[in-house]
Amino acid sequence: MSMLQTVLALLRRELTLAMRRRGDVLTVLFFFVIVASLFPLGVGPDAKLLRLMGGGVVWVAALLAAMLSLGRLFANDYADGTLEQLVLSPAPPVVWITGKILAHWLVSGVPLILMAPVLGVQYGLSSEALGVLVFSLLLGTPVLSLIGAVGAALTLGLRGGGVLVSLLVLPLYIPVLIFGAGAVDGAMAGLGAEAHLSLLGSILILAFLLTPWAVSAALRISIE
Amino acid sequence: MLEGKDLACVRGERTLFSHLNFILREGELLLVQGANGSGKTSLLRMVCGLLAPEFGDILWRGEKIGAVREGYHAEMAYFGHAPAVKEDLTAFENLDFACRLAGNPQGRDEVEGALGHLGLGHCLNLPAKSLSQGQRRRVALARMLLVKARLWILDEPLTALDQAALQLVQSLIGEHLQQGGMALLTTHQPVAIAGVEPRILKLTP
Predict the structure, then answer these.
(1) Collapsing DSSP states into helix, strand and coil, what is residue B52?
(2) Of A90, A97, A98, A220, which residue is least crowded by CB atoms under 10 Å?
């Protein structure tokens, strides 16, 4: 019971902080929109081509936007000493780490999911493909936060940690990208998206079970 | 009872201290002294469990702190260099969260009382970014009062405080010890706490 209370207190604090620093949340969202809007300018206004690449473009943009938000995950808490207090709290580390990742997803992942259909419409995705896009992001963006947390914890307090975290995390994002964009493609081609979505779901379960432990170990090293 | 046995600390290539032993019993104050860079903060972080000792053990009630982590952390409060105060939250929100995190939720009146005790009663709903460094440290000290821990680990609690606050903090430590608490303290300032003869732990390489 007290574990649940810890998570709830942490969630409330993280969401209050996000509300007071709306700029951070909006930056990530605008980045997502701008990256996705650059592609038509680069490849030209061929509707057929854009429809084909729409799902993949939105997914790549979501990947990059998720990475952009990783810097905030632990760095602020580390700088002001809050992270020490979290480590020294009686709650098991995995509990509050999961709470922090959940809060990160709510603040930086959910806005992307809400914005994705708007971008998808501009690429001319069919309504079925739009549904699959949203659902694949719903399964995939938590994985981005979970895996990203490991990278953020490992690079905590390092100089140039921002660049390093991209090198660490982007290769690990590849399976999520393949199955996420693949689901949308499947729906577009009328092949169905179930296979891709179930694989994405199993990646989510695996990441949810394993990454908090890895984050806990990485934080212990970084905080020493 | 807190006990350090044959502790050694190595940072990089340098041995900061070794063969360090201490015992801290209920109602006692242990004053850690040493020059800058002698490992005072490292020792305190070690006692907290943030830093693993190179050698030796730290025992809480006769058991290694790693083995009784949850129970130990529930009874310990740490005041470090960084005050752990979030700039975007008010003093009340900061303290409310700290209490919940320690598994010891407190009402608004208790929080206001603790802040008032430290002379910050009027800052309850002010965002911490409008507080000065000294005031933020006072908020962090109010946290020590609220979480009701038995063992206080205080790293330089007297820096950045004015004369009145210096007296106040020393009397707070005195009250804590009278109630059977324990305190481990580093400071470069002279400490005078009524009725308590601090034990001194000198750190030498």
Answers:
(1) coil
(2) A220
